Amino acid sequence: MCGIIGIVGNREVAPLLVDALKRLEYRGYDSAGVATIKDGKLDRRRAEGKLANLDRKLGEEPLAGHVGIGHTRWATHGAPTEANAHPHFCNGVAVVHNGIIENFAPLRAELMAKGATFYSQTDTEVVAQLLSAYRQEGLAPREAMQKALGRFEGAYALAVLFEDQPDMILGARSGPPLAVGHGQGEMFLGSDAIALAPFTDEITYLEDGDWVVIKRDLLEIHDRTGKLVERRRQKSQGAAYVVDKGNHRHFMEKEIYEQAEVVSHTLAHYIDFAEGRVKFESSLIDFANLDRLAMSACGTAYYAGLVGKYWFERFARLPVEIDVASEFRYREMPLTGRMAALFISQSGETADTLASLRYCRDHKLTIGAVVNVRESTIARESDAVFPTLAGPEIGVASTKAFTCQLSVLAALAMIAGRARGTLSAEDESKMVRALVEAPRLFNQVLTAIQPQIEMLSRELSRFKDVLYLGRGTSFPLALEGALKLKEISYIHAEGYAAGELKHGPIALIDETMPVIVIAPHDRHFEKTVSNMQEVAARGGRIILITDETGAAATTLETMATIVLPVVDEIVAPILYALPVQLIAYHTAVFMGTDVDQPRNLAKSVTVE
Ligand code: F6R
User: Is any atom of ligand 1 closer than 6 Å to the C-beta of 487?
Assistant: First the structure.
């Protein structure tokens, strides 16, 4: 959450800072700000709301200077006002921060007792105030930084400007990511490689606890203890990605339509097309010798993991312990026996997922990660990285990353099934064929169902609550459908296991509560139809998402029936994600919400 950028450049930096912030806006968009130094004077512009407001302000009141820092905010402490927007200033010190300084309250009290006046409600302002206090005690910038970092608890990526050192920026990382970009006579700091992509593809990723000094032709990296250290300089892939919407209205729409390509690309990484088998990666995780697999993730990635649990248990007879990472990390789960752990994350930076990973690593488990950002912290801290090749996902609501995660988990479950002798070669080859053919169906399905879903979404937008039901692997999809709808349309939605309906939620059913039932004609179909009957008997309106066989097999009256082709059950969750995503997308578009940047959310959740 929050994106930060810093540039020690040799040209006007304000437009460059804004350009980088545009690429970081997915990390937060409650407010934005930039600060530069010109003729030895710090100055800043800040604006509430989207980056466009800051851009407008800079148009009216330009900011000159070749050195500057910038920030796009996802508010944690203090409302998203201009006063709380970064950069925060204190006596010639300017700070931008991503993360949370957890002990900000005692630090603030200590500084106030010494006479400091605070101008914001943020935790970040203590960073500027403390650095300034140390400078006033006579410490040089490096010493002040080292001393201040020793006092912070919590998580931070920081970029700091000192007015009396106009050609230098200091940065620090503990938790959230921070990378240095090497330019030609220029040096950059940024939250990710995508932000730095317009300037350079030569990147150095900082490790936890590192802090840095950058000048035009100097990079000095210190570890937590202050010792000078070397970190690898590498070519980043960020520059290869064009981050634009193409012909689409929103990134989310573009990303929904990209799924045929990226799922196919991802599958190609795991499947040997010539052999019709999953590529064997036994050296990474020894599936054959496991008693249990622990899995954890957040949000949509967690729902992908839930589908994965069904697959690992069914095809590999491997018991799976799965929980949302915010619970997993504190459960003190006994990690006994022969276990490995698998974490799923698009960004690879989600704080709770990372903390769960570290818990398992501390218990000596082999760690696997299904991640989209190859250079992310979760990827770097894992023993085995299973990449999803979805490309940058910019829409805050995850779509293509989800179907790519499912594709990787399907492949891993098959690898595990083969290693454990529970999946026959015939079954594996049948499933592989089905998976390989699946992406070809995607565009056909999207084109076929789009007009119907657009019309349906108009109707859905009139309702206040929506229920999603599913059984088996369709249950996590019901959860995902509800999450997608609520996060971008703000309509209240809940996902339930279809069989749980009668244990409570059925009390909600009436004509004001549409029920979206995800039911391919699989071995659960008849049972799900019984649950639909229970809904219909109580006047509930049903939207059925099924296949041609399912549609032919039910005579129930529905508000709409969305019909997909019949597919193998390993493909079903991947294919059924498409209507689920489109329903949320079109409902939100119809309601006029900000689809790509829904309120209160951010793409990369680096705080607890
Ligand atoms: C919902 C969504 C979130 C993320 C979650 C985990 O559409 O995108 O629920 O899935 O914040 O993020 P990652 O996958 O980056 O760990």
Answer: yes
Give the start-to-end residue ranges of the domains of the chain: 3-240, 245-423, 445-593
Say yes or no: CB of residue 453 within 6 Å of ligand 1: no
Cβ of 350 closer than 6 Å to ligand 1, yes or no, is yes
Q: Which atom of ligand 1 is nearest to the CA of 484?
A: 7
Q: Is 322 helix (H, G, I), strand (E, B) or coil?
A: strand
Sheet architecture: strand order including 560-564: 492-497, 465-470, 515-518, 542-547, 560-564
Residues labelled as active-site residues: 2, 603
Q: Which CATH architecture has domain 245-423?
A: 3-Layer(aba) Sandwich (3.40)
Locate the ligand 1 atom nearest the alpha carbon of residue 297 and give its number: 16
The angle, 0 to 180 degrees and rounded to 10, between the axes of the packed helices 14-24 and 51-60 is 170
Phi, psi of 368 (to 5 degrees): -115, 150
Confidence of residue 108 (pLDDT cuts 50, 70, 90): very high
Confidence of residue 337 (pLDDT cuts 50, 70, 90): confident
Residue type, 245: K
Tens-digit pLDDT profile for residues 38-75: 999 999 999 999 899 999 999 999 999 999 999 999 88
The structural architecture, per CATH, of the domain 445-593 is 3-Layer(aba) Sandwich (3.40)
Ligand 1 atom nearest residue 605's Cα: 11
What value does the mean pLDDT of the chain take? 93
Question: Ligand 1: does its nearest atom lie under 6 Å from the Cβ of 298?
Answer: yes
Distance 478 CA to ligand 1 centre (A): 16
